[in-house]
Amino acid sequence: MTILRQIAQLGQPVLRQETELVGDPADRALQALIDDMLATMAEANGVGIAAPQVYEPLRLFVVASRPNPRYPQAPAMEPTPMLNPEILWQSDEIEKGWEGCLSVPGIRGMVPRSLRIGVRYLSRTGQVCDDELSGFIARVFQHEYDHISGMVFLDRVASSRDLISEREYLRLVSA
Ligand code: K1U
Ligand code: ZN
């Protein structure tokens, strides 16, 4: 049975905790957690979610992407669970872009991120996947990777002037 999990909000210690590697992908409890994260992300309209956001301090997250009113240029990517993800390399080329966070509702921030990254992770069936990501998907991956490293996007904005309300953000993108 899939359960919609509570999403930890900024201030909850689990968002700042160290995370552990996940074990056997075939483990039923792990597969159930992945299903819960997929359902919780969809219900919250997210393009990603990390295990610490559902109170599980594990090295596991989901990346998803689709064009939507907040990110009209976003490419399509099926929701992809990533177990024990690694960043193998990152481009020196940095791009600033708007981010939001299910754990920090109502705020958007301009966050500098590497434009391209090389990543490795295990799929939910235990396959080793090596990939090169760019643009918005690379951004979401780095955002989620921060979550499993005890960081949130607010830690990365260059100035508090790079923060705006969600309402102002929606005005900006629909203008
Ligand atoms: O990890 C999270 O908190 C999820 C977060 C991921 C993210 C968003 C934007 C840039 C980088 C990473 C979200 O999904 S916040 C919700 C959001 O941005 C959104 C909501 C509806 C449609 C499209 C995007
Ligand atoms: Zn987040």
Backbone shape: globular
Question: So, CATH architecture?
Answer: Alpha-Beta Complex
The number of distinct structural domains comes to 1
Percent of residues in helices = 10-25%
- Along the chain, the helix and strand elements come as HEEEEEEEHEH
Biggest sheet architecture: 5 strands, antiparallel
Task: List all distinct small molecules, including ions and cofactors, that are bound in this structure.
Answer: ligand K1U, zinc ion
What is the CA-CA span between the terminal residues?
42 Å
Tally the helices: 3
Strand adjacency order, main sheet: 1-2-3-6-7
Task: Quote the CATH topology.
Answer: Peptide Deformylase
| CATH class type | Alpha Beta
CATH-defined superfamily: Peptide deformylase
Structural class assignment: alpha+beta
Number of strands: 8
Short description:
The chain has 175 residues and is α+β, with helices and mostly antiparallel strands.
Give the arrangement of secondary structure elements:
Elements: H1 28-43, E1 48-50, E2 60-65, E3 77-90, E4 94-99, E5 107-114, E6 116-122, E7 128-134, H2 135-147, E8 163-165, H3 166-174
Antiparallel strand pairs: 1-2, 2-3, 3-6, 4-5, 5-8, 6-7
Zinc ion (ZN) binds next to helix 2.
Fold and architecture overview:
The chain is an alpha+beta fold. The protein has one domain: Peptide deformylase (Peptide Deformylase). 22% of the residues lie in helices and 31% in strands. The protein has 3 helices and 8 strands, in the order H-E-E-E-E-E-E-E-H-E-H. The strands form 2 sheets. A 5-stranded antiparallel sheet has the order 1-2-3-6-7, sandwiched between helices. Strands 4-5-8 form a 3-stranded antiparallel sheet. It is globular, with a radius of gyration of 15 Å. The protein starts with 27 loop residues before the first helix and ends with a helix. The mean pLDDT is 97. It binds ligand K1U and zinc ion (ZN). Zinc ion (ZN) is lined by residues 101-103, 143, 147.
